[in-house]
Amino acid sequence: MTDTPQHTDPQSAPDPAEGPAGATRRSVIATLGGAALGVAALGLTATQAAATAPRSADRPVPPLAAACVLTPEQTEGPYYLDLERVRKDITEGKAGVPLTLRVTVIDSTTCATLPNTAVDIWHCDALGYSGYVAGGSTPDTTFLRGVQLTDASGVAEFTTVYPGWYVGRALHIHVKTHAGGTISNGTYHGGHVSHTGQLYFPETYNTRVAALSPYRNNTATRTLNARDGIYRNGGSATLLTLTQSGSDLSKGVTGTVVLGIDPGATP
Fold it and tell me: pLDDT value at position 167?
């Protein structure tokens, strides 16, 4: 039995309340009805850099002036495991286009970068999520899951692979930020969740990646960003800026994004 997600993604259902029985201690379900909480958080430095970088057609152009607001919250989804393993490389040998992910975290009230903030990510590979098989969780696999603390510049960096997809959802990476915790024995402990969201990928890259191995073996229908109900509720705020590593896409890409959070918030 594989750990491929169900053919119908619980996140695409009208009712956003979701998650397996016995939800983890930090399960957060964000309501998707109504207006998004804000637009993308972009500090002045990030705005200036983005203004000069090539942009894909489906990524909105950021404002010329510095913006500092809350990044929209989005649903945690049903595949979170409260493992809190602190590590930069989360691939565990999984095949895929190499992805260097850099997440910058800023305080939405002051625009200051936030060092020592735990960034917690998880996503599927070309076939499914670790720790899950049809019918529930079996937390005996941990690939593509990990936590990193932001550095003095507010940046957390991961080595992973470009995610795959499954029915009902656009390609995405789940993300939480945690504040006030500590690290011991390679695990993040305590503190509280200050943001729950998702990161997305430009369709121009998604189409190209889908033609490469092992993604081309995925027979599930790929949902475009514009047809994903969760993406339409604020997802454009966390659309990654991608930079290809050389002329060969299979050699990898670097993805960057800025999250504006309230470090004192407790969902």
Answer: 93
